[in-house]
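Page 47, continued from p. 46.
Same chain as before, 321 aa.
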Amino acid sequence: MVKIGNLSLGKFPLLLAPMEDVSDPPFRYVCKKLGADVMYTEFISAEGLIREASKSVQKLDIYDYERPIGIQIFGANLASMEKAAAIVEAAQPEILDINYGCPVKNVACKGAGAGILLDLEKMQKLTAAIVKKVNIPVTVKTRLGWDEQTIKIMEVAQRLQDVGIQALTIHGRTRKQMYKGQADWTWIAKVKNNPNIKIPIFGNGDIDSPEKAYTYKNKYGVDGIMIGRAAIGYPWIFNEIKHYCKTGTLLPPPTLSERIHILKTHLDYAIQWKGIQKGILEMRKHYTNYFRGIPHAKTWKLQLLACNHHEDIIRILTTIA
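Result:
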């Protein structure tokens, strides 16, 4: 049984990655419905939270249907991160997660996200302060290092465990790689197989099929897997992985009718959460992914992208399936 603090997650939990502009409550709903065990919010700026920026505060919205859930924050200033941690705890998630992995320039080059991997003393001090500040489990998501010459994930894991984090998710790329190249899970396995590491280790990077999830589970020995990009437009991947790990057989892919049903559900929750117009606009980025691999879907996608009214979108979706 994998546990984060006192939170039991089953034998091999599947986690939804915190993806900016993707992992919002509507998307988390359909992923939970289709087998994700643990949700994480989009990452939230500590500075935005303490200044009550509307976009940052809205990301604190969590719902009972998606529990257990972790709220993820990022920042480089210790005082700001402590204040943000207190705000997060007040929102009552099961987990507070710290982002030490974001590779984008305006985060990492300011010493936050993956940028903190260049200053392990600061990383350890900041993490220790947050662990002391809150009474909920603190977890971390990070990368192997800044670049191939500075891979210090073994030391990072030990330092983070020493100051009290309850689980660690490792994305098998360096900051320099961004999202290119192949994730190196051998480093994740080294951390997991280190006898001094007692906390759960979750692997992340390149898991895009049930077969790969099963292979990596057995080959690298991780306690669970975090899935990001492969779930966009295809939340069925969670149940497909669970079924394959249990039976060794593949579930049939979702039918067109099933895709439309989940797309409609996603749209409904987007509208409920952000309002009609904003919900419709937010959904446009998802249409291509929901129809990925479907022959002759381009016409439908173009029609949907041109729609500004809910009833028109439903009419088109109803004619499709």
